[in-house]
C-alpha cells in the first residue's frame, strides 16, 4: 500500500519517530512532508479534473475548483449535462439538470455542511483552532494491516472525522466520517492515495468512499490537478434566474 503513496521517492527524507507523538506534532510533520506551509499558502486556486466511478461501472467527468479563502464549485458532467454544486463564501447553491431542473436552487442543510467543508482550501488541520475545530491524538490503529497515527477532528459544525496518517510519510491514507443526518448518525469511510506533486505540494489524486460496512464503493480519480490557474469569482456566484415572458 505504501508503495503507491508517492510517485517521487524524495519524500523518504522525512521519517519521524513513532513515540511521544502529539496531534500538533503530527500536523507539523504532515505540513513539512507535503511541501511546507509557505508552498501551501502560495496556492491561491486549485482546479481538479478527473472522473467519478460509481456502482456498476457508472462514470462521469468531475471538475472541482477552489479559490481562497473559501470558495468552491463542483461540476458533475454526464450525457452532455452538467450538475453544479457551489459555495461563494456565504451562499450555497446547486443546479441539477438531470431531473429537468435548469434553474439554481438553494442547498439543503446537510448539503451546505458538505460544501462548506469542501470549501476549506487547506483542509481541517491548518489553523484548526482559529477555524473552531478541535484535534485529538487517538494513538495508533492498523489500516490494512499497517499501523497508522489516528487523529480525531471535530469541526465547529459538529461533524467528526478520524484521519489515519501513514507513519513513514505523515500523510492521510484513510478518513472515517461521522455525520448526523436527519437525526441519524451516518458513518462513511474513505481511502485516499496516489500522492503527486502540484506546484511543490503533494496532493492525493485518488479517493474511494463507501458507507461503513458497505461494499458499494464510489471512486474519484483525478487526471490533472492545477494550482494558481485563473478562476473568476463569478464562477462561484449563483446565476440569476431568467424571467419568463408574460403569459407563461
Characterise this structure.
- The chain has 248 residues and is mainly beta.
- The chain has a single domain (16-231), classed as outer membrane lipoprotein receptor (LolB), chain A (Clam).
- It has three helices and 13 strands; from the N terminus they run H-H-E-E-E-E-E-E-H-E-E-E-E-E-E-E.
- The protein has a 13-stranded antiparallel beta sheet, with helices on one face.
Keywords:
248 residues; 12% helix; disordered N terminus; mainly beta; globular; 3 helices
Outline the fold blueprint:
Elements: H1 23-34, H2 37-42, E1 45-53, E2 59-67, E3 71-78, E4 81-87, E5 92-95, E6 105-106, H3 109-119, E7 134-143, E8 146-154, E9 160-166, E10 172-181, E11 184-198, E12 201-211, E13 218-227
Antiparallel strand pairs: 1-2, 1-13, 2-3, 3-4, 4-5, 5-6, 7-8, 8-9, 9-10, 10-11, 11-12, 12-13
Short description:
The protein has helices spanning 23-34, 37-42, 109-119, and strands at 45-53, 59-67, 71-78, 81-87, 92-95, 105-106, 134-143, 146-154, 160-166, 172-181, 184-198, 201-211, 218-227. The protein is mainly β. The chain has a single domain, classed as outer membrane lipoprotein receptor (LolB), chain A (Clam), CATH 2.50.20.10.
Low-confidence stretches: 2-19
Structural class estimated from helices and strands? mainly beta
Order the strands across the largest sheet as they lie in space.
6-5-4-3-2-1-13-12-11-10-9-8-7
Q: Helical residue percent?
A: 10-25%
Radius of gyration: 19 Å
Mean of pLDDT: 89
CATH class equals: Mainly Beta
Strand segment tally: 13
The CATH topology is given as: outer membrane lipoprotein receptor (LolB), chain A
Sequence of secondary-structure elements: HHEEEEEEHEEEEEEE
Q: Could you say what the CATH architecture is? A: Clam
Which overall shape is indicated by the principal axes computed on the Cα atoms?
globular
- Going by CATH, the homologous superfamily would be Lipoprotein localisation LolA/LolB/LppX
What is the number of helical segments per DSSP (H or I, 4+ residues)? 3
Total number of domains: 1
Beta content comes to 35-45%
